[in-house]
Amino acid sequence: MRFASIVLAATMLAGPTAGMLAGSAAAQSAGGAAAQPNQAPSARSISPDSTIKMFQPLGSFPTNTVTNRPFVGPQQGSEGYKATVASLQRTLTELQQLQLQLKQSHWNVSGTMFYPLHLLFQQHYDGISKDADMVAQRLLAIGASSDGRATTIVQTSKIPEIPGGFLDDAQLIVWWTNTYKVVGDEIRQAIRDTSEPDPTSSNLLQSVEQQIDEYQWFFRAMVQGTPTDKNTGWNLNDNKPLDLPDQVPAGQPHSTPQTGQAVPAR
Q: How big is the CA angle at 226 (ends 220 and 227), to the nearest 5 degrees?
């Protein structure tokens, strides 16, 4: 019975899904790390000049190993389990990427809006850090390891790298309005993917998405048109409108900044 449970734990994540572990029962029963099918041979986690020796293979990016001990896992068998682990890992990766980019923005924001944005970025960093910790611990709670390595973030995040150097306040408003939308859409999909196999994880992701939506609003509101002001951001962007196109859901009425009258969306 014990051997059967070990085999199940070792094979639950097998398959082509990126980042999922394809391990053997023997490796799991020995407590070792199973071989990773998608391991990047050129990747390294230490400096080439370092004398630190690695105590086990790096594995693929991401690596989510399943425990060989009893755990409370999602329903729907191995497919439901794989979907849940993949959704949580994707969310964790994006939250960690947000942490890095928020700090880069916090330190280097420049321009008229420096001080309020400087404070806002720190506030968002604190909130996102808590969310990342909850998601990582949820992975552990359902019997899978969480992957927070830098290479995993670089190779799998959908968020582009933010530029280096001093960062213009107006461009950061645009960047974060778009970035939070991308992450919010990703988490919304993760909520759908986990709603059946693991409602607990789905509920956790809903709370994360709620905060992401709120953070996106904070930036969107800075350049949101009103009946009396188009708020194109020209005053922050060298007298030129910001590159942030209008977006209105199909069939939803919206007011024109010129008249304030509601008109149907196209």
A: 170
What pLDDT band is residue 112 in, cutting at 50, 70 and 90? very high
Q: How far is CA 213 from CA 31, 105, 179, 194, 220, in A?
A: 41, 19, 11, 19, 10
Domains in the chain: boundaries: 75-236
| Coil, strand or helix at 7 | helix
Q: Which amino acid, 15?
A: G
pLDDT per residue as tens digits for the range 172-219:
999 999 999 999 999 999 999 999 999 999 999 999 999 999 999 999
Of 110, 87, 54, 109, the C-alpha closest to 193 is: 87
Residue 68: which region, alpha, beta or left (left: phi > 0; alpha: psi -120 to 50)? alpha
- The residue with greater pLDDT, 50 or 42, is 50
Rounded distance, CA 187 to CA 183, Å?
Answer: 6
**H or E element in which residue 199 lies:** helix 199-220
CA dist 163 and 244 (Å) reads 18
pLDDT in tens, 137-147: 999 999 999 99
Q: What is the largest CA-CA distance in the chain?
A: 72
Does this model's pTM top 0.70? My answer is yes
Distance in angstroms (rounded) separating the CA atoms of residues 109 and 165: 9
Stretch 96-107: mean pLDDT, rounded?
98
| Residues 254 and 262: beta-carbon distance below 8 Å | yes
End-to-end CA distance of the chain: 61
Task: Find residue 263's DSSP bridge partners.
Answer: 254
What backbone phi and psi angles, to 5 degrees, belong to 54? -75, 135
The CATH number of domain 75-236, selected from 3.30.70.20, 1.20.1260.10, 3.90.740.10, 3.40.1190.10? 1.20.1260.10
